[in-house]
């Protein structure tokens, strides 16, 4: 398994490419901008993109999704709640040209090669925010950051909801679980339990 992080766009969002190199399959998580950089990283992995997984609908996490889909013929997956926000052109939300391919359901499993990622609904930053849980890692989008949490002052944000998502879904994961957020550096569930001021 190989994980590549590409920092994209003016908001320095993290786009992740998680690959099973042995099986030649991968997923792209949150392709927000800088399409060429993302394509270069995908091509360097020498894998077939099985899914484009979006943690939420904000433009800095979705803007390159359509181009990545068109190039690699990979389905885009996002929650119905956040896609509805995108369709209504709410502030900060991106816009997909066509209908999405997969509406993510809570606890839905995405398999590629020998890797599985389970979708966990973690709303609050947006109405349909999703985290993706692997064997020893979790991709939290803009729900949980190192020493911080996602902002909730944009349309559809809800502070009580995001705190509930963090405390009831993410903080119940094993302490050693590595957290890969939508911005900034990685952390762990244990570190955030100990040092996150919001907790």
Per-chain topology:
Blueprint (H helix, E strand, L loop, with lengths): L1 E7 L4 E8 L4 E5 L5 H11 L2 E6 L5 H4 L2 H8 L3 E3 L1 H8 L14 E2 L5 E4 L2 E7 L8 E4 L3 E5 L2 E2 L2 E2 L9 H12 L7 E4 L5 E2 H7 L4
Parallel strand pairs: 3-4, 4-5, 5-6, 10-13
Antiparallel strand pairs: 1-2, 2-3, 7-8, 8-9, 9-10, 11-12, 13-14
Report on this structure.
This protein is an alpha/beta fold. It is built from 6 helices and 14 strands. The protein has helices at residues 35-45, 59-62, 65-72, 80-87, 159-170, 189-195; strands spanning 2-8, 13-20, 25-29, 48-53, 76-78, 102-103, 109-112, 115-121, 130-133, 137-141, 144-145, 148-149, 178-181, 187-188. The strands form 3 sheets. It has a 6-stranded mixed β-sheet. The longest helix is centred in the C-terminal third of the chain and has 12 residues, at 159-170. The protein is globular. The model has no long low-confidence stretch (mean pLDDT 96). This is Metallo-hydrolase. Its EC number is 3.-.-.-.
Distance linking N and C termini: 32 Å
Strand content: 25-35%
Extended strand count: 14
Helix content: 25-40%
Class computed from helices, strands and strand pairing = alpha/beta
| Count of helix runs | 6
Biggest beta sheet summary: 6 strands, mixed
Shape-level CATH architecture: 4-Layer Sandwich
């Amino acid at each position: 398994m190989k994980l590549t992080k590409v920092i994209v766009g003016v908001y320095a969002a993290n786009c992740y490419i998680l690959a099973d190199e042995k099986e030649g399959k991968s997923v792209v998580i949150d392709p927000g901008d800088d399409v060429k950089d993302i394509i270069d990283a995908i091509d360097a992995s020498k894998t077939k993109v099985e899914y484009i997984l979006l943690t939420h609908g904000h433009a800095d996490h979705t803007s390159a999704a359509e181009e990545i889909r068109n190039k690699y013929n990979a389905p885009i997956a996002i929650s119905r709640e956040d896609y509805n926000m995108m369709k209504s052109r709410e502030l900060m939300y991106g816009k997909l040209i066509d209908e999405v391919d997969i509406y993510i359901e809570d606890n839905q499993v995405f398999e590629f090669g020998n890797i599985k990622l389970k979708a966990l609904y973690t709303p609050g930053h947006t109405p349909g925010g999703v985290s993706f849980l692997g064997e020893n890692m979790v991709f939290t989008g803009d729900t949980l950051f190192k020493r911080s949490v996602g902002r909730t002052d944009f349309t559809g944000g809800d502070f009580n909801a995001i705190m509930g998502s963090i405390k009831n879904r993410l903080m119940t994961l094993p302490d050693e679980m590595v957290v890969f957020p939508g911005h900034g550096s990685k952390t762990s569930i244990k570190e955030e339990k100990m040092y996150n001021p919001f907790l």
